[in-house]
Amino acid sequence: MEKTNVDKKDKTIKALIATIIVISLLLIAAVVAFAVLFNPTSPTVEAQNMLEGTYQRAYYNLVAEVNDMSVDLKKIDAATSGKTEQEYLYEVWNAGQGAAANLSSFDASGEGGEKLKKFINQVQDYAYYLAKKTSEGNPLSENEKQNLFQIGQMLEVVSDNLSAIQDELKSGKSFLGSDGVLKSLPDMFENFVEPDVDYPTLIYDGPFSDGDEKSVSDKTTLISVEKAQKRVKDIFSLGDNTAVELVAETDDMYCFKTEIDGSETYVNVTKSDAELLGFTVTKRVDAPKDYSNDEIINATLEYSKELGFENLIAVWVEKTDGYAYVNTAVKENGVVIYPDIVKFKVALDDLKVLGVEASHYAKNHKTRSYGAIAISESDAVAKADERMQIKNVRLAVIPYGEKSERLCYELNGEINGGEYFVYIDCATGEELNILYVVNSDAGQLVL
User: Fold this and answer.
1) What does the alpha-carbon distance between residue 133 and residue 438 come to, in Å, rounded to a whole number?
2) Looking at residue 316, what is its pLDDT?
3) Whether the Cβ atoms of residue 220 and residue 272 lie closer than 8 Å to each other
4) How far is CA 384 from CA 164, 374, 395, in A?
5) What angle do CA 421, 442, 346 make, to 5 degrees?
6) pLDDT digits (tens, 9 = 90+) for 268-284
7) How far apart are alpha carbons 106 and 104 in whole angstroms?
8) Which of 15, 120, 203, 297 is the most buried (most CB within 10 A)?
9) Which residues are bridge partners to 264 per DSSP?
10) What does the alpha-carbon distance between residue 270 and residue 220 come to, in Å, rounded to a whole number?
11) Do 407 and 337 meet the contact criterion of CB atoms below 8 Å apart?
């Protein structure tokens, strides 16, 4: 245990050092600018050398930390105790923090750089999640170990590509200067959008479960608190004498407190038309029952209609700690519409819904029209990796870019035991997105 604490402390110090490097870059850059401004004849060689050294440390630390993450994830495959697995998971988490901090030292604002940052953050978050899960010494499942090994292989590809510019540095090039490596880094980061170094987005609870962060709604008219309170009563069929108290508000949301079935409940609605954004019922589940996924899904979808949601289908269900979590999406005319995702929390003692997260649905749901489908389903399947064993194909609308959407063929299948979703644009045949499913014993895709 003493060794574990020392390792964690050492890794945490490394992450702190990475953050200090980022701050140092800003300070040194300011020093250089100051020196040039007030003493333009000075070569500021010392300041330039300091800045060059800081960039080099950030780069080499980034490569080392990504490599450490890859190696530690592969080591877990051979571990036989929860304690050992947890130690390596915490190391991956700490190395990921350092890698993310060092990556922020460089201009990684393009598509490839953003994908790389998101991937590193997702890996460290997943490692931390599993480390907490094994905190009582329970070993990882075989599925989880297989997932971690495959993620380790993905990180190895990332490490190899990051290492590509080492030859330039060894040949005498520097980061700074008119032909410095720093200027070519954005192009190097863009390599991460190419197929040979592409890695999928990790998903733990169904495709596009994080929704589209940018609203595509154009609703601007605001309603009064009184009208919003009445709407809350209508949604939950509350009596006229039931108190609905405004407890907080933002520029576009009202938050009310009320009581449902004897339990304190918080409800969020939009200010534009009191559309449901979500609610939480404060209820404990002490004696959960072993309901099947079908029973959970049926109860969830039935209740969703009472809330005013239509045409929802389940895409993911997970049971844990006395509750079930069901992710749903709209399906209209045979097309699954992922931007309109709604999440439900269900009690496993009586199958009552205790929570809803519908902010993406409220922001994105609208009447949609699609252009002509230019490629056939068989054409789309032919564009998938030849190793992929296709299990299911369907049409889906997916978020694309900041405010755009695309109609795609959704291909679900396996490659080397790993489960993937591949999205092929129906209009162009372009491969738009790849998702890799991080399976857990508690969660299950619903297709």
Assistant:
1) 15
2) 87
3) yes
4) 28, 17, 15
5) 100
6) 999 988 889 999 888 88
7) 5
8) 120
9) 259
10) 10
11) no
Question: Using CA atoms, how far apart are residues 297 and 64, in angstroms rounded to an integer?
Answer: 45
353 token code pair: 């819904």
Q: Which of 49, 55, 45, 65 is nearest to 24 (CA)?
A: 55
The angle subtended at Cα 208 by Cα 281 and Cα 108, nearest 5°, is 120
| 425: CB partners within 8 A, 6+ apart | 406, 407, 408, 431, 432
The model carries a pTM of 0.58
385 and 415 Cβ atoms separated by less than 8 Å: yes
Other CB atoms within 10 A of residue 63 CB: 19
The string over 285-310, giving b where at least 16 C-beta atoms fall within 10 Å of a residue's C-beta and e elsewhere, is beebeebeeeebbebbbebbeebebe
pLDDT tens per residue across span 35-48: 444 444 444 566 66
Residue located via tokens 């008119």? 178
Candidate ranges 106-110, 116-120, 223-227, 320-324; pick with highest mean pLDDT? 223-227
Residues in the chain: 447
- The widest CA-to-CA distance across the chain, in whole angstroms, is 80
The amino acid sitting at 440 is: S
Neighbouring CB atoms inside 10 A of 421's CB total 24
* Model confidence at 395: pLDDT above 90: yes
Tokens of 8: 């964690």
Q: Which two tokens stand for residue 226?
A: 């009184």
Q: How many other C-beta atoms can be found within 10 angstroms of the C-beta atom of residue 264?
A: 12
Q: Which domains does the chain have, with CATH numbers?
A: 2-198 (no CATH), 225-364 (no CATH), 377-445 (3.10.450)
